[in-house]
C-alpha cells in the first residue's frame, strides 16, 4: 500500500500540478521510464536445489505440527484436561480521522473535495508532517451518532412503508365495512319481505279455506252437468241419426215410388214421355259381404333401410299439405297452401296439370279409382270435383260450413266422403252429386277421413283425441278407439284392412287391431307432431311424417325403428308409398317441396 501511495505522490508532483496553486512541492524521487525493448537482455537460469526444497518442506511440516501441539489442551493434575476459562476478546479498532473524512465526503457525493483532500493529505503524509501515531481517532460519540443516523433513516423508511400498508389496509377495511353494511341492510330487507309474504300466504290460505267447500260443491255440480250434457248430446246425435235415416228411407221409398210411376207412365206414353226427364239417378249403397282380395296375400316388405332421396321438386309457392298417387299411371297429385293443386309425373317431376279455383289453402287431394276424376278440399269450405281429361272443375260441393280437411273415394267410385272443422263427416253420391249421409258424433274438428279397403266402413280421426269407424249406409258409429292424449292428425288402414295406424300432435303413433278392437303397439316418434302415417303394400313397414323435417320408418314385425329419411328443411305434412310395388316413397313438406325416395 505504501508503494502505491508513493507512486501516486510521485506522479502528482512531477506531471499533475494543481492549477492556480502557488505552493512549491518537493520532488522526492525521479523515475525515468524507457520505451526501449528489453528483448536483448539475457536472463540467467537459476538451478533448483532439491535438497533445499525438501528441507523447507520438512520445516513447514514441523512448524504445523508444533502449532497444532500448542493449540491442544494441556494435561492437568490427575490426568484430566484443563481448559482455558478466559474467552478471547475482540476489540474494535477505532476509525482514523482521514477515513472518517473520506467516508463523509463519499456519503454526500463530494468528489472534487475528496480529490483535493486526498491530494493534500498524501503530500503532508509523505513530507513527514503528519504521523499516524500522532493523529487522534474519531471520538466514539461521532460514530454512535453516525450509526444512529443510519438506523433512524432505515427506521423512518420502514415506518413510511408500514404507514402506506396501514393506509391501504384501512381503505380495504372501510370498503369491506361498507359492503358488509349494504349486504346486512339488504338481508334485513329480504327478511322483512319474506315475513310479509309468509303473512300474506297464511292469510290467503285462510281465505281460500273458507271457499273450499263451495268450490268442491261447484266442481261436483260442474262434473254432473258435463256428464248430463254429454249424455244429452249422445242422445241427440242418436235421435238425429235415426231421424235422418228414417228421412232417407222415406225419400228412398218416395223416389222408388216415383220411379215406378215414371216407368208406368213411360210405358203408357212411349219412350219419349215427358215424365222421364225430371228423374234423378242415385247410386246404390255398396254391399256389405264383399271380400277383400288381399286378405290372404303376402307381399314383400319395402326396403326403406336402403332408400335415399333421389330427387326433390319445388312446384308450389306455399307448403305442400297432401300427396296422392294415381291408381294406374306413375303420376302424383299435390295440394298446397298457395290455393292450387298440381299433377306431376314420377320420377321426372314434370308438371302435367295445375288446378286453380279454391279461394283458400288446399288441404286434401285424391284420385278417383278409375283415375278420370280428382277431388280436392279447401279452407274455403268447398269440395271440388275436377275432370282430368277436360282439365276443368266439374262440380263444387258446398255442404260444409267450415274448412274441409280431407276427402276420400270409395273403392267402387260411387261415393266420396269429406271431413270438416264443423265436427261432421259427409258422404256424397257421385251420380247425383248430393249429400247422402252425415256422420255426427265427434266433439271437435274432424282432421282426416278414409275408407276401410273393400268395405263400406268409414274411418275418421278427430281433434277430440278419438278414432271412430262409421257405417256408410246407416250413418252410425260402429266403433270408437281411445288412447291418444292429444289431437289425432291422421289415421289409415293397411291393405288387408285389419290394422289401423293413427298419429297425434304429441308424436305418438298407435296401432289398433280392428278384429279385437284393442291397441297392440305404440310408437314414439319424438317431441314433434306426427302429421301422417302410411303402410307399405305388405303392411309390415310404417312410414311416419314428422314435424322435425324427417320421415321415420318402422318395422312392425320386429317392432323396431329402421331409418330416418332426412332431407327436408321444414315439417313433413304427408307421406305415401307407391301403391303397386312400394319401391319408392314420396313425401310432402312445409318447405314447398315434395321429395322422391328410392
Structural write-up:
The protein is α+β, with helices and mostly antiparallel strands. Helices cover 32% and strands 27% of the residues. The chain is built from five helices and 28 strands. Strands 1-28-27-26 form a four-stranded antiparallel β-sheet, with no helix packed on it. A four-stranded antiparallel β-sheet has the order 2-3-4-5, with no helix packed on it. The longest helix has 130 residues, at 140-269.
A few lines on this structure:
The chain is an alpha+beta fold and 598 residues long. A hairpin with a 5-residue loop joins strand 18 and strand 19.
Report the major sheet. Answer: 4 strands, antiparallel
- Shape type: elongated
Strand content: 25-35%
Q: Assembly type of the shown chains?
A: single chain
- Strand order in space, largest sheet: 1-28-27-26
Please give the alpha-carbon distance between the first and last residues: 111 Å
Q: Output mean pLDDT.
A: 83
Number of strands: 28
Q: What is the number of helices?
A: 5
Structural class: alpha+beta
Radius of gyration: 60 Å
- Identify low-pLDDT runs: 1-24, 76-83, 267-278
Helix % is 25-40%
Task: Quickly list its features.
four-stranded antiparallel sheet; 5 helices; disordered N terminus; alpha+beta; elongated
Topology, element by element:
Blueprint: H1 2-15, H2 50-71, H3 97-107, H4 111-127, H5 140-269, E1 309-313, E2 320-325, E3 331-336, E4 340-345, E5 351-356, E6 362-367, E7 373-378, E8 383-387, E9 392-397, E10 404-409, E11 415-420, E12 424-429, E13 434-440, E14 446-451, E15 457-462, E16 467-471, E17 477-481, E18 488-493, E19 499-504, E20 508-513, E21 518-524, E22 530-535, E23 541-546, E24 550-555, E25 560-566, E26 572-577, E27 585-589, E28 594-597
Antiparallel strand pairs: 1-28, 2-3, 3-4, 4-5, 6-7, 7-8, 8-9, 10-11, 11-12, 12-13, 14-15, 15-16, 16-17, 18-19, 19-20, 20-21, 22-23, 23-24, 24-25, 26-27, 27-28
Helix pairs in contact: 1-4, 3-4
Amino acid at each position: 500500500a505504501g508503494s502505491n501511495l508513493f507512486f501516486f505522490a510521485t506522479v502528482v508532483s512531477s506531471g499533475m500540478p494543481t492549477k492556480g496553486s502557488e505552493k512549491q512541492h518537493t520532488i522526492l524521487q525521479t523515475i525515468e521510464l524507457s520505451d526501449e525493448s528489453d528483448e536483448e537482455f539475457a536472463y540467467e537460469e537459476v538451478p533448483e536445489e532439491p535438497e533445499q526444497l525438501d528441507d523447507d518442506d520438512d520445516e513447514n511440516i514441523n512448524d504445523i505440527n508444533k502449532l497444532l501441539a500448542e493449540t491442544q489442551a494441556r494435561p492437568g493434575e490427575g490426568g484430566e484436561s484443563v481448559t482455558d476459562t478466559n474467552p478471547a476478546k475482540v476489540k474494535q479498532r477505532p476509525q482514523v480521522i482521514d477515513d472518517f473524512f473520506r467516508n463523509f465526503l463519499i456519503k454526500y457525493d463530494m468528489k472534487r473535495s475528496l480529490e483535493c483532500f486526498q491530494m493534500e493529505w498524501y503530500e503532508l503524509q509523505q513530507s513527514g508532517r503528519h504521523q499516524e501515531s500522532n493523529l487522534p481517532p474519531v471520538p466514539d460519540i461521532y460514530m454512535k451518532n453516525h450509526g444512529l443516523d443510519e438506523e433512524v433513516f432505515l427506521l423512518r423508511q420502514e415506518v413510511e412503508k408500514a404507514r402506506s400498508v396501514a393506509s391501504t389496509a384501512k381503505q380495504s377495511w372501510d370498503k369491506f365495512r361498507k359492503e358488509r353494511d349494504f349486504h346486512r341492510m339488504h338481508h334485513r330487507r329480504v327478511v322483512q319481505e319474506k315475513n310479509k309474504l309468509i303473512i300474506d300466504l297464511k292469510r290467503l290460505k285462510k281465505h281460500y279455506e273458507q271457499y273450499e267447500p263451495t268450490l268442491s260443491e261447484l266442481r261436483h255440480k260442474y262434473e254432473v252437468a258435463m256428464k248430463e250434457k254429454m249424455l244429452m248430446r249422445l242422445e241427440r246425435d242418436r235421435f238425429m241419426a235415426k231421424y235422418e235415416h228414417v228421412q232417407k228411407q222415406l225419400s228412398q221409398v218416395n223416389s222408388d215410388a216415383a220411379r215406378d210411376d215414371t216407368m208406368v207412365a213411360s210405358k203408357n206414353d212411349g219412350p219419349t214421355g215427358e215424365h222421364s226427364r225430371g228423374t234423378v239417378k242415385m247410386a246404390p249403397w255398396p254391399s256389405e259381404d264383399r271380400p277383400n282380395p288381399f286378405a290372404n296375400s303376402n307381399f314383400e316388405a319395402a326396403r326403406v333401410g336402403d332408400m335415399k332421396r333421389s330427387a326433390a321438386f319445388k312446384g308450389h309457392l306455399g307448403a305442400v299439405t297432401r300427396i296422392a298417387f294415381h291408381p294406374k299411371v306413375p303420376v302424383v297429385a299435390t295440394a298446397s297452401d298457395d290455393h292450387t293443386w298440381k299433377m306431376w309425373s314420377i320420377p321426372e317431376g314434370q308438371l302435367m296439370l295445375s288446378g286453380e279455383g279454391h279461394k283458400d289453402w288446399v288441404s286434401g287431394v285424391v284420385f278417383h279409382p278409375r283415375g278420370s276424376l280428382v277431388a280436392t278440399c279447401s279452407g274455403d269450405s268447398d269440395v271440388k270435383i275436377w275432370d282430368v281429361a277436360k282439365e276443368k272443375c266439374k262440380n263444387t260441393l258446398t255442404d260444409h260450413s267450415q274448412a274441409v280437411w280431407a276427402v276420400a273415394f270409395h273403392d267402387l267410385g260411387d261415393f266420396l266422403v269429406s271431413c270438416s272443422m264443423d265436427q261432421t263427416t259427409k258422404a256424397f253420391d257421385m251420380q247425383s252429386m248430393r249429400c247422402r249421409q252425415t256422420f255426427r258424433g265427434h266433439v271437435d274438428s274432424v282432421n282426416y277421413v278414409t275408407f276401410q279397403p273393400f268395405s263400406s266402413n268409414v274411418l275418421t280421426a278427430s281433434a277430440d283425441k278419438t278414432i271412430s269407424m262409421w257405417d256408410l249406409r246407416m250413418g252410425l258409429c260402429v266403433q270408437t278407439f281411445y288412447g291418444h292424449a292429444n289431437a289425432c292428425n291422421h289415421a289409415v288402414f293397411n291393405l288387408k284392412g285389419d290394422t289401423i295406424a293413427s298419429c297425434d300432435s304429441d308424436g305418438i303413433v298407435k296401432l289398433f287391431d280392428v278384429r279385437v278392437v284393442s291397441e297392440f303397439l305404440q310408437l314414439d316418434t319424438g317431441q314433434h307432431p306426427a302429421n301422417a302415417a302410411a303402410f307399405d303394400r305388405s303392411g309390415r313397414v310404417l312410414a311416419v311424417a314428422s314435424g322435425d323435417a324427417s320421415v321415420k320408418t318402422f318395422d312392425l314385425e320386429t317392432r323396431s325403428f329402421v331409418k330416418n329419411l332426412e332431407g327436408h328443411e321444414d315439417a313433413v305434412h304427408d307421406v305415401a308409398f307407391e301403391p303397386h310395388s312400394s319401391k319408392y316413397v314420396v313425401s310432402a313438406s312445409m318447405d314447398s317441396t315434395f321429395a322422391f325416395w328410392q
